[in-house]
Specification:
- The complex is a heterodimer of chains A (190) and B (275).
- Chain A has 190 residues and is of the alpha+beta class.
- Helix content of chain A is 32%, strand content 25%.
- Chain A has 5 helices and 8 strands; from the N terminus they run H-E-E-E-H-H-E-E-H-E-E-H-E.
- In chain A, strand 4 and strand 5 form a beta hairpin.
- The longest helix of chain B has 35 residues.
- In chain B, strand 2 and strand 3 form a beta hairpin.
- The chains are: A alpha+beta (190), B alpha+beta (275).
- The interface between A and B is large, with 38 and 40 residues.
- Chain B: It is found in: Cell envelope.
Chain lengths: 190, 275
């Protein structure tokens, strides 16, 4: 075993006791380590948007990590006159509209009489909608009623959503009037 | 003494929308905690490792057969005399510069003392798995979004609240505001009170309650558990002092031995030692 003299033994005991004492009495090497709690959105790019859910139209800031194409955080826009930074629980969850794995990313089509949804591309979908609008308008267009020119269709209606801006609403209204639609409505009237 | 900051929860303003819960999960990237429907609008029984704040929905019949549906945003109270900080053997639970209580995950050893000693049952352990597949536990709870506070932001739950039921600011200002609000609502809620328990020297999440704390399931006078106080404030310092005394005795013994007993005891061995 160790060949310790009395003196060496005492020195060793003293050193051990001193070390233990220093450690136990509060010196902690971890203390010096800075706590790296990085601010999550420090390097994010921020885009203002409007909440798509209800008709109040709250302003939302979307913080995006552009490299990873990921939404890091969404919050109420403090500069927005409607909500001044606050949001409801549904608006707060808007981040999941993008990040959820259950998000629908392609147009789905269910043919009349079918019980199956089929994935379609956007070209096909937009053409299909255009075809249907044209067909419906041609079939239902009324040019004259009681001797008065009316040029309208009562078979098409338009319902605007809360995510639409003023300018988009203007264009939609113009387009619908062009088609002859008279039932033009917007969710913000509820 | 640094300035303390606090979150005032005005339960009489809360409309139970739960935006604070969603905002908390959103900012802190916490996973879902799915729960079964239990016959109430309340989503969770209590705060947990992944649900740092939640709303309790209490159905209460007040005086005059008047029905009140009481909402309370509940999260870590950030006690001034925090039991979790007191009992933590790894110094993981600590006070921040805002007077709030935070966990340092690098230091946390998952012992669970904080879970056992929290007077409000807030802290919970969560099991994580590292890259080698080894499981380890961490104590998790509301951190009052300390990373946001350091950037000058408000906590996520406060920022999102559209009823101003959650307000964050200097503790003194919040206490004054709470008194002001209490005077305003006293007529409608005669039992209204401010819940800022003195047993833990006040909390940094404190409440304006419409009814007595017991109605909300809160302890009337929460305290740091006696066992924690005895162990940490008396037994352990005494133990450390004893260690110091022992060390001094060893050193003293060594010196006295060297000075006075050299000829009697140390001589024969001393000559052979090769220092």
């Amino acid at each position: 075993m160790f060949d310790l003299s009395r003196r060496q033994f005492l020195k060793l005991s003293g050193a051990t006791a001193a070390t233990v004492a220093v450690v136990e009495l509060g010196f902690n090497p971890n203390e010096a380590k800075a706590q790296a709690n990085e601010y999550k959105i420090a390097r994010a790019s921020t885009t203002p948007t409007i909440c798509p859910y209800c008709s109040v139209g709250c302003g939302i800031l979307v913080h995006v990590n552009e490299e990873k194409n990921d939404v890091l955080y969404t919050e109420g826009d403090p500069d927005h006159p409607i909500n001044k930074g606050s949001l409801c629980s549904k608006g707060t969850s808007i981040r999941q509209l993008y990040t959820s794995d259950r998000r629908v990313e392609k147009p789905l089509y269910r043919a009349p009489g079918s019980s199956e949804w089929v994935e379609k591309d956007w070209d096909w979908t937009l053409n299909k909608i255009a075809e249907k609008i044209k067909k419906t308008r041609d079939e239902s267009f009324v040019e004259r009623e009681n001797g008065i020119t009316v040029n309208r269709t009562e078979a098409i209606a338009s319902l605007g959503g809360a995510a639409l801006e003023n300018e988009e609403c203007y264009l939609i209204a113009k387009f619908m009037r062009g088609l002859g639609a008279t039932f033009i409505e917007h969710q913000a009237r509820i | 003494m640094t300035t303390k900051y606090a979150k005032l929860v005005d339960t009489t303003r809360c409309n139970g929308c739960r935006a604070c819960m969603v905002a908390c999960k959103n900012w802190n990237d916490l996973p879902v905690d799915p729960e079964e429907f239990k016959g109430s609008y309340q989503s969770h029984d209590k705060c947990g490792a992944n649900t740092w704040n939640m709303l309790t929905f209490t159905e209460h019949v007040a005086e005059g057969n008047r029905f009140e549906w009481l909402f309370r945003h509940t999260a870590c109270f950030h006690c001034t005399d925090a039991a979790c900080v007191k009992v933590c053997p790894a110094d993981a639970m600590h006070f921040t510069e805002f007077g709030t209580v935070n966990t340092n995950y690098d230091k946390c050893i998952g012992c669970g003392y904080c879970v056992q000693n929290c007077p409000f049952g807030i802290v919970e352990l969560e099991t994580h798995t590292d890259e080698n597949g080894t499981e380890y536990e961490l104590a998790q709870k509301c951190v009052m979004c300390v990373d946001r506070l350091r950037e000058g932001d408000q906590p996520a739950c406060v920022e999102i609240c559209h009823m101003d039921a959650l307000i964050y600011g200097e503790k003194a200002d919040m206490e004054a505001l709470a008194e002001e609000r209490l005077a305003e609502i006293k007529e409608r809620f005669p039992n209204a009170n401010i819940y800022n328990p003195v047993g833990v020297e006040g909390t940094q999440t404190f409440y304006l309650l419409a009814e007595p704390p017991s109605v909300y399931g809160l302890p009337e006078n929460p305290r740091v558990p006696l066992s924690a106080t005895v162990w940490k404030d008396y037994a352990q310092p005494l133990g450390k002092a004893m260690l110091g005394v022992t060390t001094m005795a060893v050193i003293g013994g060594y010196i006295s031995n060297k000075l006075f007993n050299k000829d009697d005891h140390g001589a024969d061995e001393g000559e052979e030692s090769n220092e």
